[in-house]
Amino acid sequence: MTDAPQIDVDVPASGPGCAECDAAGGWWVHLRRCAACGHVGCCDTSPAQHATAHFKETGHRLIQSYEPSEDWFWDYEAQDYYNGPELAAPTGHPEGQSVPGPAERVPANWQDLIH
Asked: Residue 24: its pLDDT value, please?
């Protein structure tokens, strides 16, 4: 790693779902949370891949899984897992939220649309 990664353990997650997908009425497979600013974006399996787009736009290189019961981090710059600290709650989307989700916006052919 070239620089110490940005992590803000006090910033909350931006919401229960992908910020951009929610704004556009879209859907996602899994969610990732930026460790620097709390932005929640969809994973690279999702059609829109907003978590990676957020990294490319901001340079915020560390994400944490935003799936309940998962606490792993990924470092986009190093292309490897990272041992990060506990972030501010919530650390995952609501337990009852469907995967993929949100259920009412997931198309019937969703498996044909993922990466």
From this structure: 97
